[in-house]
Each structure stands twice: as C-alpha cells, then as structure tokens.
Amino acid sequence: MNIGKNLKLIRKQYGKTQEEIATACDFKQGHYTNWETNKNMPNLINVIKLADYYGCSIDYIIGRESEDGVIIVPNTPKSKIEEIYEKLNHQNQMMVLGYVTALLQKQING
C-alpha cells in the first residue's frame, strides 16, 4: 500500500495543489509534501480530515478501496489475479475473460 502515491493521485484527480489541500485541511504544506513522497505518514486524525475534504472513506484515502467502493485487501487472491491480468496484453486479457466466463457458466450449470 503506497499512501503517498494514492494521496497524489487523488489530489491530481481533484485538480488541486499541495498548498490548496494543506490550507483547506489546516496542515503545514511541508507535512503534506512529506506524506505524498512517503517520507512520513499522516496520522489518523489527518487521514480523517482528508477523507472529509474529499468526501470519501478512509480506506479510499489509504488505497484500500477502489472508486467503485470495493475494499482492496493486499495479498488476496482477487488482488493477485487483478495484478496479473493488468500485465497481460489486450488479446490475452480477452482470452482470460473468455475462459473464466466459460468456467463460471460450467459451475452455474453444475
């Protein structure tokens, strides 16, 4: 889990600068910069402030929840499958999708 990378991604999605986030959430800009660069980690109170500012969950701020609300727990089979799938080229992704669809249909039909 890379909280700094996630903080930067969320901030950029909102089109904000580090200074704007720090001011809005009453942080020192240097502290916020250190969080984004993983030099330090924000404490729970500050993570809550960020979640409130962005209107999202704490899990989303720290990178354990995707945009669709799914909680991502590291090292689960699902996250490992997703990691491998994303490394495949488009053609192989389509082959995997076809295979798992057929496998699911076989399971449903018994």
CATH topology of the largest domain, anyone? 434 Repressor (Amino-terminal Domain)
Question: Which blocks of ≥5 consecutive residues have pLDDT under 50?
Answer: none
The total strand number stands at 0
Question: Would you identify the CATH H-level superfamily of the largest domain?
Answer: lambda repressor-like DNA-binding domains
Task: Indicate the CATH architecture of the largest domain.
Answer: Orthogonal Bundle
Average pLDDT, rounded to a whole number, is 86
Distance from first to last alpha carbon: 39 Å
CATH top level of the largest domain is Mainly Alpha
Query: Could you describe the largest sheet, including whether it forms a barrel?
Result: none
Domain tally: 2
Overall 3D geometry? elongated
Reading the helices and strands in chain order gives HHHHHHH
Percent of residues in helices comes to 55-70%
Briefly note the structural class of the backbone.
mainly alpha
The fraction of residues in strands falls at under 5%
Count up the helices: 7
**Radius of gyration over all CA atoms, rounded:** 18 Å
